Amino acid sequence: MNDAAVLKPPARRLLQISLGDAARSGRAESGLAAAMRARGGEIEMRLVGQGRKLSIIRDVLTQAPRFDDYDAILTTEYTLAYAAGLRSWLSRSRTPVIVIGLNLSRSAIATGLPPVDRMIDAPFRRLALTVMHSRHEMALFRDKHALDPARMAFALWGFDLPRIKSRRFEGAPPYVCLIGRNNRDFRTFCRAVEKAGVHGVIIAPSYAAFDFEIPESVTVYRDLPMSDCLDCIRNALASIILVEDALRGAGHITAVAAMLLGVPQIYSDVPTLHDYFVNGATGWAVALRDADAAAAAINSIRTDRDEARRRAAVAKAYAERWLSHEAVSARQAELVTGVVEGRPFEPVDPEWRAAHEALARQTPAGLTSAE
């Protein structure tokens, strides 16, 4: 038999279940799909309609293809992760179920009654691997749903900036901005802006409620498209991420966008952001609900432009190395391939850990949250 007659091994088949228009199901074309294709894997996308938890779970149980026809099942959302684990458990499938980017954007699936919650947690314990976008979230989900630490891993969230067509904020008077859909502390932002004597811009969803009087120095926009949001960030004195608590999503999309745009950032000093920022090196950390500290950071950026540019440049270099579409897709594909092939995987990328720790060592000694 000559070399030309030797057949290549068949590609591994992976099924990704995501939320969206079911009519658009088909061959996946994501960064992860491309990275897996380079490793001999092909991802088929199956979309289920967005809705309430019970309808999502029902659709996964009744409409998703047979799990054992695939080498791995991938999901990307909390309720989908539960539904896929439940389906795997009920069907006794041997195919590993992997969750990429598990976070708690919705309310938890729990009752508060320990005996009942132990039963509810069974589908989560069925997962072969859960990948979180911060090390702190690994601990949160381990404790919330009794997940096995040996089946958990950390992978940064990232993306490549799209072309920004918007010019909505070009030429606007100096301002700082806060952008986000969930877990944003609009009240502290408004108080900080007033104390700093600067104009503020908020971009929020239509459902965001403001139970306080918005000062005249703050302009609120609702449901602006992505291009407008990016234009707002790139023209701002600073992008600010203030969150209400450390238990939910913490603005990773906004953080990465501002890094790549080279814009200084002020952020809540919460563990979910510690893998993305280093206080004093790539941004300004402030305590939760501390308007005085946020105002002081704003004024620091306004008065010391050289330092603001320095930190923004360090953050941009960090993002270009670790938070690009290519970098995060490669890390995800490495973890998925390890599970499919039954190989051990590194829960935290040792190369990234060494680089992050080196960055932290460059931070001036004795730096406080409010600086």
UniProtKB/TrEMBL annotation:
ATP-binding as UniProt keyword: no
GO MF, one annotated term: glycosyltransferase activity
Keywords: Transferase
InterPro entries given in the database record: Glyco_trans_1 (IPR001296)
Domain Glycosyl transferase family: 212-311
Transferase found in the keyword field: yes
A Pfam family it matches: Glycos_transf_1
Protein name: Glycosyl transferases group 1
Organism, scientific name: Amphiplicatus metriothermophilus
